[in-house]
Design brief:
Elements (H helix, E strand, L loop, with lengths): L13 E4 L3 E2 L7 H16 L5 E2 L2 H4 L9 H8 L3 E10 L2 E11 L2 E12 L3 H16 L5 H7 L7 H14 L4 H17 L4 H16 L5 H18 L4 H15 L2 H14 L4 H15 L2 H14 L4 H13 L3 H14 L4 H14 L2 H13 L4 H12 L3 H15 L6 H11 L2 H14 L20 H9 L5
Parallel strand pairs: 1-3, 1-4, 2-4
Antiparallel strand pairs: 4-5, 5-6
Helix pairs in contact: 1-4, 1-6, 6-7, 6-8, 7-8, 8-9, 8-10, 9-10, 10-11, 11-12, 12-13, 12-14, 13-14, 14-15, 14-16, 15-16, 16-17, 16-18, 17-18, 18-19, 18-20, 20-21, 21-22
């Protein structure tokens, strides 16, 4: 018997798929290599026993000079997948390699080639090969879903990938461009479930971000999500968009919860879905500990997405854990010091603490960066600090900036509540209800609404929104 035995290799339980290189001579093919990266992430995400880093965080390492151990440490994973994509004529070739991070060691590499019609089969083959190499447990049901790839219309798929490419950008103009590409995909193939789910997701985002009137956008979310699910009952994206519709617009919380749970059962690594479910159980049920755990899990899947840190900060703020809220907002600043999320939320954390001077300063920083909601925060902070005339001037400035454009009504109601203008606050809250501009949640509402809880009009608005006080 030997004196020394070789230490057992640590099993791989977490992985990041780094952006695949575009091997085409045409830089405009970047959308295709990005799309292949995202598709393989999605395939691997179905495996419950594996933690898979989401696209948003993985794409930060596009064209990086960082070494694998450093990337793995930043993302908290055991291994990475790197590779390249070449689309030539009617063929697609993916070259992939699996690299263990600690110590850095090349474990496997292979080439896969298929026609464009079989690109979904190709993606599934690559994902299953990776799963085999890392010896992760794949349940029979997961294996069946991964093997269920179908033949695809190449023109429809190309339009879909272009839609995804623009959908991941940050401006509403790009989001509308994304919708047009998804519509083109549907023109090429009216049975293409992914494209319907893509449109539902974009209108969900446009509504949630206040770029579309709720009554215009949310019914489209429902229509396209239901169409996606009719074509593919296991469409996770369709389920999540429909869950968002039920929660944010229809206020059918039981249906929303069922859809969230089913989607996360199918894709346990869906960071956005897990984030929204965590938010939902705090907002609707007030279950802070459970909600924070879900959002933290989503952040382990997508650690560099500011929206998640913003959401977690908001939840900590509502739970009166102000230091934790500020830690989250300061983490966003490390990622992007000019990110609007910081200046939208930080003033409210300070307001809850009674630090009105700090709140005003943070709001003014946002205004200097051209962030419109910072006027709303400034007006609320001035009102709470007793500077009523200045608060009304700031609110007037917000109205001037908005003009005839749509602006979420809840923020205006919140300013009037801070001013103690009960009539105006309830008028705008009622308007917000009529517009379906927010999902009623006393748990997340500012504490200056507390004095309204005995008001019958307030109670009626909440009750119509499915909230019993």
């Amino acid at each position: 018997r030997p004196y020394f035995s070789k230490p057992a290799e640590k099993p791989i339980t977490s992985i990041a798929v780094l952006p695949f290189r575009n091997m085409s001579a045409n830089p405009e093919q970047e959308y295709f290599s990005d799309g292949m990266t995202e598709a393989i992430i999605k395939e691997l995400s179905q495996i419950k026993a594996l933690r898979v880093i989401s696209r948003t965080s993985a794409m930060r390492y596009k064209n990086t000079e960082k070494l694998v151990p450093e990337i793995a440490r930043e993302l908290g994973v055991d291994a990475v997948v790197a590779g390249s994509v070449l689309k030539a004529g009617s063929d697609v070739r993916i070259t992939a390699q699996l690299i263990s991070a600690r110590p850095e060691k090349h474990l496997w590499a292979d080439d896969f080639t298929r026609t464009l019609e079989n690109v979904l089969v190709l993606q599934s083959e690559v994902a299953r090969a990776i799963a085999r190499e890392i010896k992760v447990t794949v349940t029979p049901r997961e294996r069946e879903r991964m093997a269920r790839a179908a033949v695809v219309n190449p023109k429809a798929h190309e339009a879909y990938l272009r839609g995804k490419f623009f959908g991941h950008k940050s401006s509403p103009e790009d989001w509308y461009r994304s919708v047009r590409f998804f519509e083109r995909a549907i023109e090429e193939d009216s049975t293409y479930a992914l494209a319907y789910a893509g449109i539902a997701e974009l209108y969900d985002r446009l509504a949630s971000a206040g770029f579309e009137r709720p009554g215009d956008a949310w019914p489209k979310v429902r229509t396209y999500a239901e169409k996606a699910l009719a074509l593919d009952p296991n469409s996770v994206e369709g389920m999540l968009s429909l869950a968002e519709f039920e929660y944010c617009y229809d206020w059918d919380y039981e249906s929303a919860e069922r859809l969230f749970k089913r989607a996360l059962e199918l894709d346990p690594n869906h960071a956005t879905g897990r984030f929204w479910y965590g938010w939902f159980i705090v907002a609707v049920h007030g279950r802070f500990e459970e909600g924070i755990a879900e959002v933290r899990r989503s952040m382990s899947l997508d650690p560099f997405w500011p929206r998640m840190l913003f959401g977690l900060a908001y939840i900590y703020e509502a739970a009166a854990e102000y230091d934790s809220a500020l830690v989250c907002l300061n983490r966003i600043a490390e990622i992007d010091s000019n990110d609007a999320h910081i200046f939208v939320r930080k003033p409210y954390v300070y307001m809850r603490q009674g630090k009105y001077a700090e709140a005003i300063e943070a709001a003014e920083e946002g205004i200097a960066l051209g962030i419109t909601p910072s006027w709303e925060a400034l007006a609320a902070a001035q009102a709470l600090s007793g500077r009523t005339d200045e608060a009304r001037k700031s609110l007037a400035k917000l109205f001037e900036i908005i003009g005839d454009d749509y602006y979420p009504t809840y923020g205006i109601a919140d300013v009037y509540a801070a001013l103690g203008d009960r009539e105006k606050a309830l008028e705008y809250l009622e308007r917000c209800y009529e517009e379906r501009g927010f999902a009623p949640s006393p748990v997340l509402m500012s504490p200056w609404w507390d004095s309204f809880k005995s008001d019958q009009r307030y109670q009626e608005i909440m009750k119509k929104g499915g909230i019993e006080l």
